[in-house]
Structure formats: C-alpha cells, structure tokens
Design goal:
mainly alpha; transmembrane
Length: 248
C-alpha cells in the first residue's frame, strides 16, 4: 500500500504540478461556493450544523489517522508528532471557532489559521508524498478546510473583525511561540520551525539564518495580519452583502 507507506515509492510531489494546482483550484471553488450559497445555508440550522460538525469531524479524524500513521510506521516521537505546529493550532482553533462561534477563536483562526494555511498551501512542506498518498490528502484537506471554515464564518455566520484584533492575535502568537521554544528545548523538537527552517523550500528561506529569521518572521507576521485585515476591510466595504459590516 504505497499510498499509506511512510517511506513510499509512489508518485512524488511536484510544486505547482497538476495535483498541487488541483488543490488550489478546488479551494478557490469551495470558497466561492460558500459565498454564493450563504443565504441557502443561513436558511437552515440543520445545514449550518451539518457543515460545522462535518468540518470538526474531518479535523479530528484527520489527526487520529495521522497519529496512527506515525505509530504504524514506528516513527512516532514527541519531538515532531504532537499537534503543536502552527498548522495544528490552526485546525484546533477552527474546531473551537466552529463549535462556539467565539469572537476570540474566530480572530485566531482568521489571522493565524487562514493566513498560515494559505501560505502553506502555496509552499507546502509535504515531503515527496504525491497524490493520492495519505499524507498528501491529509495535509491539503486539513489546511484548505481551515480557510473554508473561515470563509463560512464570514459569509454565513457574519463574524466581524476589528483592527485591534490584529495586535491581540499577534501577542497570542508570540506567547505561544515562546512556550514552544521552551518545549522544543525539552524534547529536542522543531515545532513552529523555531529551531531551524523547514527541510524543503519555504518563505523561511528568505529571512536569513537561525535565529535571525525568527525576529524577521515576527515583523512579517504582523504585516501579514495587517494586510489580511486590510483585505477584509476592503471586501466588507465593496461587497457588504457577502460579509458583515466592517468594524473599526
């Protein structure tokens, strides 16, 4: 079963190859579908619950299968296998957002989750696992679903963002990074890539060697958050029927 093997000899991953582009196009179409069908979804609590709990189920099932995959291959180790990377925090925050409709969890999922998921989908750290390997499917479905969940909360649940949310979430992120730095020292890990850059090509490569790229990333994260808020502010002004009225 090459599609499940940890070390496989099946199709490899090609950046912006047919499978990668298929993911990007599918994500775009899914987001457009949510926006176009927002009124249909709002008309029925059953449809909303089906979407919300369906996403939660996929997130949890994906992590369960991922952990089993590591264990089955005999490679599970706390230095890398725990759901503590930024991508894991994204889907965990998305679960709390979908279940509670909390403003705080929405802000975290929007800035940390959707922002990192979008960049990760464009420059994925998926090794050489090509479609339809389990790791390929798990990686892209999880990241894409975070973005789809955020679009749902904006278009259907009419969640709002405030400019101060940018700085609040940025402080949350820095606090979490500080904890992960200590945890990395304890388990000899590299969660959030705080100890070294990812093995494959990534935006980290643009920001210099360790530890300098960490400080550059802090500034970049803040600028990205501000840019994301600016995009939200512009869309909410241009298309007020698609998202809720923007907040200062």
């Amino acid at each position: 079963m090459w599609w499940w093997a940890y070390t496989h000899d099946g199709p490899g991953f090609t950046m912006f190859g047919p499978a990668h582009m298929g993911v990007i196009v599918s994500l775009f179409l899914a987001c457009v579908f949510i926006v176009l069908m927002r009124n249909w979804l709002k008309e029925s609590v059953k449809r909303q619950n089906f979407f919300r709990f369906g996403c939660v189920t996929i997130f949890i099932a994906g992590e369960v299968f991922l952990q089993f995959w590591y264990i089955d291959a005999g490679v599970w180790d706390p230095s890398f296998a725990l759901p503590l990377h930024l991508s894991s925090i994204a889907w965990i925050a998305a679960i709390f957002m979908l279940l509670t409709r909390s403003q705080m969890w929405f802000e975290i999922t929007f800035f940390v989750g959707a922002g990192s998921a979008f960049l990760t989908i464009l420059t994925p750290d998926v090794g050489n696992y090509g479609f339809p390997h389990f790791r390929f499917l798990h990686f892209f479905i999880t990241h894409a679903l975070v973005i789809v969940a955020v679009v749902y909360m904006l278009a259907v649940e009419k969640m709002q963002l405030r400019f101060r949310s940018v700085f609040r979430v940025w402080f949350y992120l820095n606090g979490y990074a500080a904890l992960m730095f200590i945890f990395n020292l304890w388990v000899d890990g590299n969660y959030m890539y705080l100890m070294e850059t990812p093995p494959g090509p990534s935006p980290f490569d643009w920001f210099g060697p360790w530890p300098y790229y960490i400080f550059v990333l802090q500034a970049v994260a803040l600028l990205v958050f501000i840019g994301m808020y600016g995009l939200y502010w512009w869309i909410s002004g241009k298309f007020p029927s698609s998202v809720n009225k923007r907040s200062p």
